[in-house]
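tmp note - Carboxymuconolactone decarboxylase
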Amino acid sequence: MKTNWPELMKELGVSLKDLRGGAPDVMKGFSAMAQAALAPKALDTKTKELIALAIGVAIRCDDCIAFHVKAAIEQGATKEELMETLGMAVYMGAGPSVMYASHAVEAWGQIAPKKD
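out:
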């Protein structure tokens, strides 16, 4: 069964909105942490999004994969960078990461702009 990654993100957006409304202080704190972690310093934001994607694959989090594939694309990541990132995730997470790396490839195919 294939996942519709754009639809998954849309559905998650609704749930996350409810969570932000129900636990606003926690979610503001999480948002501030995310902004601080993603700020470009020694590593650029694209590299940080690829790291987040690798962690999402290694810990087997489809929701993380969806959001970080999209964010990596928005930061200018290439398919080649995606594949190297997934190679590292597989190296660190073994067999289960192979399966979740395939989810990231599928998400990329659905989210990345199509090149003519």
